[in-house]
Amino acid sequence: AKSESRGTVFPHPCPRIMNAMLRLAVVAALLVSASAFMAPASVNTIRAARNAAISARPAGLKLAAPSLRSSPKAAGALRMGQTPSSMGETIEEFVANDDPKLQKVVLALFSAVKEIAYKVRTASCEKSSCFNEFGDEQLAIDILADNVLFANLKACGACEVASSEETPTEDPQGGTGYSVAFDPLDGSSIIDVNFSVGTIAGIWPGGTLVGVDGHDMAASLISVYGPRTTVTIAWKDKDYSHEFLLIDDFSGNHGKWLRTNEFTAINEGKMVAPGNLRSTQDNPGYMKLWNYWMENKYQLRYTGGMVPDVNQLLIKGKGIFVNPPSPAAP
Question: What are the DSSP E strand ranges found in the chain?
């Protein structure tokens, strides 16, 4: 890789660059309280309410994919960008030869994303927040997403502990094999205006999230809830990153996740998603960088959510995402 003033250039081919990039994005957003997991009273209260809601949740609420045979014609119509012969395969086919316990965790996350997508799409929104049903309760959509993820991870039997941005502690899940850290709904503050939002998750082997980093990851993913629902996943033992599309058209593939894209590199390009712009006021380096972008006529492409902004770099294959802090805007 070669660093230049206008971005980072990744030569092609670059078999594992996308894995590293996606892991680092997840690490930046997810390694919550990695030095010590302590549960304050407020976290215990949230956890108790979540566990009670999960226990009372009616059976069969998950949105399961129907067991209908894939249509090659329909799969072909979904292909974008590069089209290897495996495009159109389901997520189950994609992970079929991998560690069975890792398969269970990944499929649990995909199942949770499917349910969250429906809840986001049908949420009732006020000026400052959105709500939907979880069992017999009406919950804020970010708390609901948190509950859905915990419920699916607990049910899969292969997750030892999980930690969420909503409850940044190690929460035992009753399984063995892997640990998961996640942000259930990145961009929840912009969901009421119907902007795209997303979920971020990182998966580590073993039973703790303390002392781990991005290099230890088994897999990581981001999901985007927008006009389409997609998940892009990076896998330790697979080259590149891979996008899966949730089929929602009542065809033979309805409810399935089909692979639609493969991302190999993010190249240099004049497109920038600058987060936390207010920090330019007391971060001289960020102000200098911002002025450089403007003087050189970079395109501004910032939505207010990290997931859709990172996802656009993958789709476009170019650009920059930054979110620098400052003393007044940490």
Answer: 2-4, 7-9, 124-125, 130-134, 137-140, 159-164, 171-172, 178-186, 197-205, 219-225, 229-235, 241-246, 257-263, 267-274, 299-300, 318-322
